[in-house]
Amino acid sequence: MQQAITLDYQGKILRGMEHVPEQEAGQRLPAVILYHGFTGTKLEPHRMFLKICRRLEALGIACFRYDFLGSGESDGNFEEMTVSGEIAEAGAILDAVKADPRIDPERVILLGMSMGGLVASVLAGERPHDVHKLVLLAPAGEMYALVREVVDGVLAIPDLQLYDYNGNLIGRSFAEDVKTLNVLQRAKGFSGDVMMIHGTKDPTVPYQVSLDYQEVAYGGRALLHLIEGADHTFNKTSWEQDVIGKICDFLR
What we know:
Layout: E1 2-9, E2 12-19, E3 29-35, H1 48-58, E4 62-66, H2 83-99, E5 103-113, H3 115-126, E6 133-137, H4 148-155, E7 162-165, E8 168-171, H5 172-178, H6 183-187, E9 193-199, H7 208-217, E10 223-227, H8 237-251
Parallel strand pairs: 3-4, 3-5, 5-6, 6-9, 9-10
Antiparallel strand pairs: 1-2, 2-4, 7-8
Helix pairs in contact: 1-8, 2-3, 4-5
Pfam family, one: Hydrolase_4
InterPro entries: AB_hydrolase_Est10, AB_hydrolase_fold, Hydrolase_4
GO molecular function: carboxylic ester hydrolase activity
């Protein structure tokens, strides 16, 4: 069953959606937590997160997807967002899901897309015993390299506190934070099963970033599925269905 949910985090409300299959009395279900990307929401483009959740629910897997603070329908403003802040919020969501009496705390999977993949990889690396498996869709990796021009432009002007990025205001705190993350090293601590999916024509996060994850963070053991010609958010029905099929096969 799909229904709206909320989570109080440090006095602000994270708003989300849960998809929980019918279960027998006393049964505990595996669960997937989905983390959206930079400027994204709990739906993501062409409702892909919703479609993933419905397919997984049909397999008997519960799903939870929230808007981070400052995104979608959650409290806060986008200009207050930092990657480190989202990692902390992701941890609070993980705690809530693991404490849910309907969920098997030993079978909680993280799934992140783009910057949400960065968030999921770091959280899994720092809390490996709390995460069963990891799915990364076009993960952002060392994000500073991808947004260097914007970040350096913001930091070069001492009095500049906000930067207009396609209608989203980026705060100075985001720019300062993203330079310090050291993502691949922080992701190394996760030793469970990992699957990554990336488009070969991704103009936002080149697929070589997933190759870096595979080599540096996961020692070559992570599964990597490349979708020929696909863009950053898999904006074609055949690409989307490929992504969803691979996720279901990995978690079935």
